User: What shape does this take?
Amino acid sequence: MSTDKSNQPTSIEQWVRIPNGTKVRHRTEAYEGIIDGLTEIVSGADRNPDGKTQYRVNVGDSTRLLVSEDHLNILLDDKNLVFVGRESELYRRSVTNRLRAVFPEDRFVTTVTKRRASSDNS
Assistant: This one.
């Protein structure tokens, strides 16, 4: 029995896109922002696994930066769920499970809220 290579999925078919509205942090520059879509007009050599796009990351003040997913960490709340806009917990749990299935654990970062930080100092 032979295996037909044309039926095997490629890495592009397996790519799971980080949804719009997801809060992320740049892995080296440490700025935070919100995924605001994809663009095919890319700068630099880094691309997403599809080979042709980069994420638009809204970092505030109408500023959007182009970043490939290799440079992003995904931010989690105190329940270890992905921050996704004002979405329900059920939706965020679904997104969290989908992203955890494809990204290594070190790509998920728990944020410290101001309320939590002030209570830690007391």
